[in-house]
Amino acid sequence: MKKILFVITVFVGVLFYSPFSQVSSCKAEVTDYLQMFEDKVTEFTLENGLNFVVIERHQVPIVSFVTFVDVGSVNEKTGQTGISHMLEHMAFKGTKRIGTRNWEKEKQVLQEMEQAYKELKRESSKSDPDSEKLKAKRNRFQKLKKKAGNFVKPNEFSKILEKNGANNLNAGTTTDATLYFNSLPANRAELWFNLESDRLMNPVFREFYTEKDVVLEERRMRVESNPTGKLIERLQAMAYLAHPYGQPVIGWRSDIELLTKSQLRELYNTYYVPQNITIAVAGDINPEQVKKWAKLYFGPFEKGPEPPKVTVEEPEQEGRRSFKINSMRKPVYVRAYHAVNQDNPDFLALDLLASVLSRGRTSLLYSSLVQEKRLAAKISAFNGFPGTKFPSLFAFFAVPNAGVELSEIAEGIDKQLQKVKDGEITAEELERAKTKARASLVRRLDSNMGLAKTFAKAQGQRGDWKKVFTDLEKLQKVSLEDIQKVAEEYLSKENSIVGKLVNIKPDQNILGR
Amino acid sequence: MKQNKIIKYILMCAVFLIFSGCAAQTQKTPQYDQLEFSSVKELPKPETESFTLGNGIKCFLLEDHELPLIKVKLRIRSGKVEVPEGKEGLAEIAGDAMRSGGSSKYPGKKLNRILENNAANLNISFGLSSGKAGLNVLKKDFPELLPVFVDVLKNPAFPEEKIGLAKQRLNTRISRRNDGQKEIGLRKFKKLVYGKESVYSRVPEYETVESVTKSDLKGFQQAAFKGQKMIMGVVGDFDSQDMKKKLQRAFSAFPAGSEDKEFKDEFPQVEDNREKTINLVDKPDVNQSFILIGHKGGIRTNPDYAKLQVMNKILSGGFSGRLFENIRTKQGLAYSVFGRYGCNYYYPGTFFVGLETKSASTKKAIQKVQREIKRLQKNGTDSEELEQAKSQFNNSLVFKYSSSEKIMSRLLHYEYRNMPKDSFQKLVQGIREVSVSDIQEVAEQYIDPERFQILVVGKKSKVYPQLQKLGKVNMLELEP
Q1: Would you say residue A32 lies in a domain?
Q2: What is the per-residue DSSP string for A115-156?
Q3: Whether A282 and A331 share a structural domain
Q4: Are residues A370 and A491 in the same domain?
Q5: Other C-beta atoms lying within 10 Å of the C-beta of residue A280
Q6: Are residues A326 and A293 in the same domain?
Q7: A382, part of any domain
Q8: Chain B 219-278, CB below 8 Å of chain A: which residues?
Q9: How many domains would you assign to chain A?
């Protein structure tokens, strides 16, 4: 509910260099991994289209669960931005049997309340609202809201899970997807099937209007009171004129304020259908048992119509776009280029390029801008922002050192990019990037939750969990020429968007560098 | 919801019931509270081996053969607490420059290449009350990289260029320290709780960073890396007997050091806050207030520690706590709300409740938090809520053993503090024994609203008038 798996966190990213392996033995090991997992993974689909991936890992008696719903901000209509994230919050509000003291009576009040809200909205949207009437309608709505609140058992859904030892209980929304997850002691696995099926099939959107306030606080925290958040939001909006990747995951303020419950219900009816959902279960659990519980609990989940596809295509950019945000804070620099989606063959070369540029202390940007020229405190390059499902951006994010002009950062980046385009990347650098890619995958596969999330995404978004490994195999084949080619093709000035967070107060506190 | 939508929905459900025969669903599938669970399987009890090297380094080994990796974790009894006044920043620069500068045998650039070509990781850092160093490598690279690790820790070169880089990095952090509300809030709150001049609240300034010299860094590093002050844990794919020999050989290079001064004597006492204060930091470019409320907290060895942990769960444990329920879920006053009675080992922790709320509801949120605390002190808990908190803890115990790394970290945690090895088991036992009346007692005894330090980082023009209604407001200046 809580953290939007905000792309920003990935974007600003932690550098992590980690375990694993020598370039030489690479290919053999990738195949080994695929084989190893083929023995441990069971995949099946219920008649209603609900897809399961089960990964056995019996070392410790715990199990992780991930529900991957193929809906994110990219599926949102104009005027309803933020609604998939809102639905994610509402999915913690309980069902007809959980979170209520008396569903029959509560239902009655919720209906009256919805009616009252509509009347209030009708009055307030008049060009010349009658203040007496408005007041009366507001009072009536508030009264019913309070009355409805009396039927609620707050957070009962989460409380049941936590009482049973749930760990890592949360959910997240991105441009591309909505994920719900938690881990339980293995002996309580059935509880998850019981609760999750109820939540997916019978959600009740109670406490909706109060939860809007919570989400608005979240927006204040992430964006409105946080200039870096604003910068990223603006970057997305500037990059996309037509494609919904331009919409913020959390939603525009006025959209959040005006969202209605029937819009929420519509989104639920459209996208929360079993054939649009993938469930990954990883840990100390028997796949036959999972099948039995899946049938018992999720069998009755009714198949719906196929959800609509996103068809908008972003027109070619044809010329650099740039913007700045005046701020009282210290400067930040972002730059992005239109690139490709995850199924495009160039995606992996761009991934490796990002790694060569900014991953680790030996990377081009770190060693030049951070260590040698001392221009930046932080610098990262990132492929696949804000999502990966549709043609996306290759982005840079830089925090300059005190006293450094943003133009110096820009020049520094340009210089390194030119090196790449001139074919100056060495075989050693490329091999190192490949090693790191393998290492970080292995790292993610080292925990039940990491496994479940990675497999759920590959299966739910791309139809096959094996892509986790086949991608890695393809990645090993990327050549120096490929890297040079993608840099030339995508990282051109005409194709870029530049954003600056600019300090409007003169800064007296800069010591020379 | 539009009326016709509702009807459509009800119809849909009806169709659904008839066709899928799901009328039976509620009968076939049990209620969640009627499920029966087998008892949890025996938790893995991995064998750890421990021994002490000739120079006093305490070592713990834990074999784990799932992946061909080896991880070394060092804890060093050192930290910012030992840095003399006027040299604030020394510890941060030391950790940074040791890593980036390497040793004369393995200077920075060479070090980075060796590590990254092998996808290995080496880190060094110093916190307030401890230093940490770690090596994370593939098994086959361990023999080659262990001596590198030791050489970097034992003989850092501290090249001027890398000292300069570390200083600049720290100066950049100082120059940005007033950007984020949270960063400002946490820094100022420490000053309110521990005192402005306290070793627990001081921060680096441009002048103190400037005054750090190469010989300061060497002195700090040499004082830290002595056998008596070092504790080591190794986890991964190795044979313990063989590892023991390897460590013996590699780490005997460190001097033993003397025990003339106990580490814990470095930590001065903290006075209790005498009276309640209300404080505001003006941040004109925000529309939300970051609020912290609290006072001095406790010490880990307090016999009431287990009771306080349960109190914490009741107050703010996950999505089940009172703060989450009453500030967020019911009132919609915040997205993030948190709090706990914190206990440190060497010096007192802090008791705090924190949240972020829109400027207009700043006063309301503060009052609401105070009311929650008072309610806890006056009425304590009931058996249902206590059961929720205790079950949360007990049923999730298995996660504390979910990886060898977690087990090792806990082991090092207690060893670092010279606490008995069964401290965690005692805590588990202690939590089982907590009673309903205990909660009210500890809430009364350890929390004192009359001494609350209330801090708001927010937009003065919106917030000040609200705070004035709560009492006298101190405006706190931001450091340059």
Answers
A1: no
A2: HHHHHHHHHHTSSS--HHHHHHHHHHHHHHHHHHHTTB-TTH
A3: no
A4: yes
A5: 31
A6: no
A7: yes
A8: none
A9: 2
Does A262 lie in the same domain as A350?
no
Six-digit token string for B97: 């420059």
| Pairing mode of beta strands B131-138, A51-56 | unpaired
**CA-to-CA distance for B356 and A250, rounded, in angstroms?**
17
pTM: 0.92
The domain boundary, picked from A240, A266, A298, lies at: A298
Residues A285 and A349 occupy one common structural domain: no
Handedness of CA B163, B166, B168, B171 (dihedral sign): negative
Same domain flag for A424 and A289: no
Question: A247 and A388 share a domain?
Answer: no
| Nearest chain B residue to A191, by CA | B32
Residue B428: strand, helix, or coil: helix
Cβ of A333 under 8 Å from any chain B Cβ?
A: no
Within an 8 Å CB–CB cutoff, is residue B137 touching chain A?
A: yes
Q: Residue A230: inside a domain, yes or no?
A: yes
Sign of the torsion formed by the C-alpha atoms of A392, A394, A398 and A404: negative
Q: Which domain holds residue A464?
A: 321-503
Contact A513 B168 (CB under 8 A): yes
Of chain B, the end-to-end C-alpha distance in Å amounts to 53
**Burial track A342-373 (b if 16+ CB lie within 10 A, e otherwise):** beeebbbbbbbbbbbbbbbbbbbbbbbbbbeb
- For chains A and B, CB pairs below 8 A equal 248
- Could you tell me the domains of chain B? 48-256 (3.30.830.10), 277-475 (3.30.830.10)
Inter-chain touch A61–B1, beta carbons under 8 Å: no
Query: Quick one: angle between helices B142-154 and B108-117, nearest 10?
Result: 150
Among residues A261, A283, A298, which one ends one of the domains? Answer: A298
Give the H or E element holding residue B233: strand B230-236
Which among B28, B136, B395 has CB closest to A164? B395
In a domain, A128, yes or no: yes
Q: Cα(A81)–Cα(A247) distance, rounded to whole angstroms?
A: 7
Facing residue for A162 by CB, picked from B173, B210, B320: B320
Q: Where are any strands of DSSP class E within A319-457?
A: 321-327, 332-338, 376-385, 393-400
Mutate to test the interface with B, among A86, A182, A225, A253 (most CBs of B within 10 A): A225
- The dihedral built from the CA positions of residue A34, A35, A40 and A43, taken in this order, carries a sign that is positive
User: What is the torsion angle, in degrees rounded to the nearest 10, for the CA atoms of residue A387, residue A447, residue A23 and residue A31?
Assistant: -90
**CB-side exposure of B134: number of CA atoms within 13 Å?**
18
Indicate which of B114, B177, B285 best probes the interface with A, i.e. most A CBs within 10 Å of its own CB.
B285
Round to whole Å and give the CA distance between A455 and A339: 24
User: Is A254 found in the same domain as A219?
Assistant: yes
Here the tokens at position B93 are: 């620069």
Q: Per-residue pLDDT for chain B (480 aa), expressed as one digit of tens each?
A: 344 444 444 444 333 333 333 333 444 788 998 899 988 777 777 889 999 999 999 999 999 988 888 999 999 999 999 999 999 999 999 999 999 999 999 999 999 999 999 889 999 999 999 999 999 998 999 999 999 999 999 999 999 999 999 999 999 999 999 999 999 999 999 999 999 999 999 999 999 999 999 999 999 999 999 999 999 999 999 999 999 999 999 999 999 987 667 888 889 999 988 899 999 999 999 999 999 999 999 999 999 999 999 999 999 988 999 999 999 999 999 999 999 999 999 999 999 999 999 999 999 999 999 999 999 999 999 999 999 999 999 999 999 988 999 999 999 999 999 999 899 999 999 999 999 999 999 999 999 999 999 999 999 999 999 999 999 999 999 988
- CA gap A331, A403 in Å, rounded: 10
Q: Are A480 and A425 in contact (CB under 8 A)?
A: yes
CATH (domain of A148): 3.30.830.10
A111 touches chain B (CB under 8 A): yes
